[in-house]
Design goal:
Number of domains of chain B: 4
Mean pLDDT of chain B: 95
Number of helices of chain B: 23
Number of strands of chain A: 4
Distance between the termini of chain A: 21 Å
Shape of chain A: elongated
Number of helices of chain A: 7
CATH topology of the largest domain in chain A: Glutaredoxin
Largest sheet of chain A: 4 strands, mixed
Order of helices and strands of chain A: HHHHEHHEEEH
Shape of chain B: globular
Largest sheet of chain B: 5 strands, mixed
Radius of gyration of chain B: 24 Å
Oligomer: heterodimer
Low-confidence stretches of chain A: none
Number of domains of chain A: 2
Low-confidence stretches of chain B: 1-18
Strand content of chain B: 15-25%
CATH superfamily of the largest domain in chain B: NADH-ubiquinone oxidoreductase 51kDa subunit
Helix content of chain A: 40-55%
Strand order of the largest sheet of chain B: 2-1-3-4-5
Strand order of the largest sheet of chain A: 2-1-3-4
CATH architecture of the largest domain in chain A: 3-Layer(aba) Sandwich
Distance between the termini of chain B: 75 Å
Structural class of chain B: alpha/beta
Largest interface: A-B, 42 and 58 residues
Chain lengths: 155, 516
């Protein structure tokens, strides 16, 4: 989404929609991210004003939580679970295969903006590991050899 | 209760309509069953007129998933690791195994997980038909003091990891005078290797709500929250639907006033599973640990008395009320009463959920339930209690699974996660993986954890790269001791355990990487 005067209007609209009592910084930021896919840093002053906090408090919460993003992610976000059961079952090999295939490192977005590659600490799918989460689709017992087919669905 | 009757009627009507033509097939419906392929089966068979699909909570026997069951003459019959093309043999009834004859399930002692595989997660009438809400009715008959007394007799200890006596916490909250009190269910199940809370949220959500209502009645709370990790979207959705159903059935009421329960989702921070960081996060702030005392039971959410307990703890409470505290105390060992929900993962042959009384040995669990090692794997180590849990080599497997024996061995049961590592595991890399995890997840409040975890990771990276010396191993030992003693919460305090036990049990692997 382009940032500009439009963005500020939209943020304002979301802030009016999500009236949270008592004011809650995290919930507000999650609501903005839900609409934008990320939290625009330029919007921090408005958010601070609306929830009655300082810009430092907003920035503090924004930088604290791994799931809050300040940049636009790819159209599809791939998260490889790095939990211990996944580790024991070879998530490292799955991650390497994804890195090679996408030519992107952890935290990076592929050129063209299709995929963002990320990790997560545990998806709670330990009994069917290793696990890869693509957007809201969870894949279990993933083999490195299945990576290509798995991604084809997102073409 | 009008809604329940209507639900029952609708289901009966469906049954009658399909009775003559369709075979009822039961498919399980939690995140892991779907990830194993249950969703694909449901899609493939959705339009088959000869099949009536019923989606139930999962049995937790994930190595058998996708698993399909149908009614037999003597209970259910199951087909394992099913593919869509197996439908004809299931319909003709060939090759199935009676569920009662699956040792993984038959040898368990399921109380908290008794409904799993039997009921539809959101069918309140089915929950009631299998003994649900009896505990809550009992709680309404008892005084708050009598409820807490029943919990004292039960000797229930918190199942999230800290194992604090539940009654004690409730007593403090009950006796603290305040305008408002809160009940908070900790559904931030962040320990890698654990998933029993997720199963409860997705499979038997009314049990959690019942436990929370009993707690609210005992301490005099006005409101409740479930702090659910963002990684569990299906759990949050199921729980929200369950809350709506409970509200429609007029269950969310205490002392003539409404008792709202709200699901709040986190944003990916592991330390928010620590109770005080969780409260900060619920208030919308950075999930930074608070110094204790005061404890949340006295000064909790927005400064009010708050009971924060794990999902499994709340889910254990209804039966303590319905069967009595003495019943619960009759299970398990001297210091560890009741059952424990163990979650098997890693290179074990039969990963899945195992509910048994406390006291069985690690070896029994891994062999009798875990079925030994996955094909092609040889045992190297097992980790109990999540990413902060100690590692055990094959010589440590006779340890009984109970709080006291683990405490004596300098280990923890945590939330019951058990992960098995095989012969291919590089212990130096695994130790680095643990320290990197703590460095990533430290909230930053206390120095031993914030700085210690980063230094620990650096030392392990140095050893891994071949630049470490024998002094680095000693340094890791010193650093670990400092973190254990001086950290503010269990994240920093427990982080050294997996690293130091890896060095203790596999010294050759570490030494072989040192610079000579």
């Amino acid at each position: 989404m382009e940032q500009g005067p439009d963005m500020h209007e939209q943020v304002e609209k979301i802030l009016l929609q999500v009236r949270i009592d008592p004011p809650n910084i995290l919930k507000t930021l999650l609501a903005i991210q839900e609409s934008f896919g990320h939290v625009p840093v330029d919007a921090i002053p408005e958010i601070a004003h609306r929830v009655g906090a300082t810009t430092a408090q907003i920035a503090g919460v924004l930088s604290y939580y791994p799931d809050l993003r300040v940049t636009v992610p790819g159209r599809h976000v791939i998260r490889v679970c790095m939990g211990e059961s996944c580790y024991a079952n070879g998530c490292g090999r799955v991650l390497r295969e994804l890195q090679n295939y996408l030519r992107a490192d952890v935290g990076e977005t592929t050129s063209g903006g299709k995929f963002t590659l990320d990790t997560m600490s545990c998806a709670g799918n330990c009994a069917v590991s290793p696990t890869v989460l693509i957007d809201r689709d969870l894949y279990g017992r993933v083999l490195p050899s299945q990576v290509e087919t798995m991604l084809e669905r997102y073409r | 209760m009008v809604v329940c009757c209507r639900l029952r009627w609708r289901r009966c009507w469906n049954d009658t309509a399909n009775m003559n033509s369709a075979t009822r097939l039961y498919l399980f419906n939690d995140t892991s069953a779907r990830a194993a392929g249950a969703g694909l089966l449901a899609d493939a068979w959705a339009d088959r007129p000869e099949v009536q699909l019923i989606r139930l909570s999962s049995r937790g026997a994930f190595f058998l998933e996708p698993m399909v069951e149908r009614d037999g003459l003597d209970g259910r019959v199951a087909w394992f690791n099913v593919a869509p093309e197996d439908l004809p043999s299931i319909l003709s009834g060939t090759g199935g195994t009676p569920v009662q004859a699956i040792p993984f399930l038959a040898n368990q002692t399921r109380y908290t997980f008794a409904n799993f595989g039997e009921t539809e997660p959101l069918a309140l009438d089915e929950y009631q038909a299998r003994g649900g809400l009896v505990g809550l009715e009992e709680a309404f008959r008892l005084t708050p003091d009598a409820i807490i007394e029943e919990l004292r007799i039960s000797q229930l200890r918190g199942r999230g990891g800290a194992a604090f006596p539940v009654w004690n916490k409730w007593k403090v909250a009950q006796q603290t005078k305040a305008r408002e009190k809160f009940v908070v269910a900790n559904a931030d199940e962040g320990d890698a290797g654990t998933y029993c809370d997720r199963l409860i949220l997705e499979g038997d959500p009314f049990r959690l709500l019942e436990g929370m209502l009993i707690c609210a009645r005992a301490i005099g709370a006005n409101r409740a929250f479930v702090y659910c990790r963002q990684e569990y979207p299906a759990a949050a959705a199921t729980l929200r639907a369950a809350i709506q159903k409970a509200d429609d059935a007029e269950l969310l009421e205490l002392n003539g006033e409404s008792f709202p329960i709200e699901v709040v989702e986190g944003a990916g921070s592991y330390v928010c599973g620590e109770e005080t960081a969780l409260l900060e996060s619920l208030e919308g702030k950075r999930g930074v640990v608070r110094a204790r005392p005061p404890y949340p039971a006295q000064v909790g959410l927005y400064g009010r008395p708050t009971i924060v307990s794990n999902v499994l703890t709340f889910a254990t409470i209804p039966q303590i009320l319905s069967r009595g505290g003495a019943w619960h105390a009759s299970l398990g060992t001297e210091q560890s009463r009741g059952t424990i929900a163990l979650q098997l993962g890693g290179r074990v042959k039969h990963p899945g959920l195992v509910e048994v009384p406390f006291g069985l040995s690690l070896r029994q669990i891994l062999e009798e339930f875990g079925g030994g090692m996955a094909p092609g794997s040889r045992f190297k180590a097992v980790q109990v209690g999540g990413p902060l849990g100690s590692l055990f080599p094959s010589t440590g497997l006779d340890l009984p699974i109970c709080y006291d024996a683990f405490a004596k061995a300098g280990a923890v049961l945590g939330h019951g996660g058990i992960v098995v590592y095989d012969h291919e595991t590089d212990m130096v890399d695994l130790a680095r993986h643990f320290m990197a995890f703590t460095a990533d997840e430290s909230c930053g409040k206390c120095t031993p954890c914030r700085i210690g975890s980063v230094r620990g990771r650096e030392i392990l990276e140095r050893i891994q790269a071949g630049g470490g010396t024998i002094d680095d191993l000693a340094l890791l030992g010193d650093l670990g001791e400092t973190m254990k003693l001086a950290s503010l919460c269990a994240l920093g305090g427990r982080a050294p355990y997996p690293v130091l036990t890896a060095i203790e049990h596999f010294p050759v692997e570490f030494r072989s990487k040192l610079k000579t």
